[in-house]
């Protein structure tokens, strides 16, 4: 292997669609219509869904949650609460500490992130975790 390259994995369209479907199924099961956003490791939109009845502006918060989780490679709830307002200002509002954003780790590589908006915090997280489970991913890097 060259010292100038690194192996990587990539989230496919099929993977993103599986995440969306699992999140939507979980949201329906627990009775919370949500906005679901899946981004790649660089925070670029791969797929999204606004379920019937989800709050319109939650698509923006779901996108910000997904971008934050991808950028920081950790759940959005782990963004330092004291630093969150400064990070939000410095990033033009693109970083948040709101619950509902989880990175997608496969084989120790962050391949993207999920952002959920419109449900209470615990439900947003549960819905995102259903998306991870659908593709055999984790929210943390494992050795």
Class from helix and strand fractions: alpha+beta
Largest sheet: 4 strands, antiparallel
The total strand number stands at 4
Low-confidence stretches: none
Mean pLDDT figure: 96
How far the N terminus sits from the C terminus, by CA atoms, comes to 20 Å
β content, as a range?
15-25%
Shape: globular
What is the count of DSSP helices, taking H or I runs of 4+ residues?
Answer: 4
Whole-number radius of gyration? Answer: 14 Å
Q: Approximately how much helix is present in the residues? A: 25-40%
Strand order of the largest sheet: 2-1-4-3
Order of helices and strands: HEEHHEEH
Characteristic terms for this protein:
about 140 residues, alpha+beta, four-stranded antiparallel sheet, 4 helices
Protein architecture, described:
This protein has 143 residues and is an alpha+beta fold. Helices cover 38% and strands 19% of the residues. The protein has 4 helices and 4 strands; from the N terminus they run H-E-E-H-H-E-E-H. It has helices at 13-30, 58-72, 84-90, 121-134, and strands spanning 35-40, 45-50, 101-106, 109-117. A 4-stranded antiparallel sheet has the order 2-1-4-3. The chain is globular, with a radius of gyration of 14 Å. The mean pLDDT is 96.
């Amino acid at each position: 292997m060259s010292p100038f390259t690194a192996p990587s994995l990539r989230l496919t369209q099929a993977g993103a669609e599986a995440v969306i479907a699992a999140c939507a199924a979980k949201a329906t099961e627990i009775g919370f219509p949500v906005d679901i956003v899946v981004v790649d490791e660089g925070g670029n939109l791969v797929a999204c869904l606004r379920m019937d009845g989800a709050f319109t502006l939650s698509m923006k918060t779901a996108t910000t949650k997904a971008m934050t989780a991808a950028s920081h490679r950790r759940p959005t709830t782990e963004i330092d609460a004291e630093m969150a307002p400064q990070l939000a200002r410095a990033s033009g509002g693109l970083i948040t500490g709101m619950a509902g954003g989880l990175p997608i780790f496969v084989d120790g590589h962050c391949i993207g992130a999920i952002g959920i908006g419109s449900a209470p915090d615990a439900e947003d997280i549960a819905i995102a975790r259903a998306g991870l489970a659908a593709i055999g991913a984790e929210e943390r890097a494992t050795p």
